[in-house]
Amino acid sequence: MSNRLYLVTGGAGFIGANYVHRLLARGERVVIFDNLSRHGAQFNVAWLQEIFGRDAFTLTVGDLRDADSVTACAREADIVVHLGGQVAVTASVQDPRADFEANALGTLNVLEAARHSGRNPIVLYASTNKVYGALEGVDLVEEATRWRYKDLPDGCSESQPLNFVSPYGCSKGAGDQYVRDYARIYGLRTVVFRQSCIYGPRQFGIDGQGWLAWMMLSALEGRRITIYGDGKQTRDVLYVDDLLDAYDAAVARIDTAAGHVYNLGGGPDNVLAVWAEFGPMLQTLIGRPIEPEYGPWRPGDQRVFCADVSKARRELDWAPSVRIDDGVRRLFAWVKEHQAALAWR
After folding, report:
1. Domain containing 224 — which CATH number?
2. Among this protein's residues, is 168 annotated catalytic?
């Protein structure tokens, strides 16, 4: 049994709960730090307690904006996995101050807590592909069901210039750069993951985040689905188990990974148009036609995002293994089984 202590901020969320499950199953010690404000957080905590017992992990209900609380939780941590924060572009536009405090200030509090702990912990940070903005200047080609890059067959690499668009892009981008710089300035063993669309079980999707789960739930409940843009905007999607494999790989290879930034997405083999391609898949799963509404493009929306994951493949010996068809079927089965808990009431 390992004697390492993991602190997982946002550990009651979608990615966090899946990772905590994995960590507990292999005998790691875990502290969850979460304010439980996200719909589904209580369900995820109950799920973990049901499987492993109430005493199998420590749950600290706290706020990332509270530096003292974060410091107390990080004091004994060997590995800090920073997943907590505000997750939706739409919410950031509605309340940019709350978004900044949760994401930028919250990340600084995590870094300072790790720096002052005296344990030189590994710090993994969940950044986002939104730090690249709308990729102005990258030529696109419109095809029958999707947009694609004209000259980037492997996708967008980590060398793509940063271009923060939306308050969410700014707050996550600030955290991204702080985490990177704490490795350079303080020698903290940090790793930044610029994540694409992550999907899988335990995802309590909302309109502004977790779109695959959200559309599945909306279709099951007969609610109207709104597509912002033409529906041919494409994303490379990554199943949550593959993401967690990358986290583990970075920890195992921290001497290589420390101070580095990695794109984590499905890559060119796992690209899906938001409606022109996912829509027919969803209609097949539901067993009936679905007619969405269309709205204007959202500010800063990427017509295409596909991650070049060759750096992670090369340095972490990591690659996506769950293909879209399989992953979507798995998620749909989970959403259908947990429809009552997923729905807002």
Report:
1. 3.40.50.720
2. yes
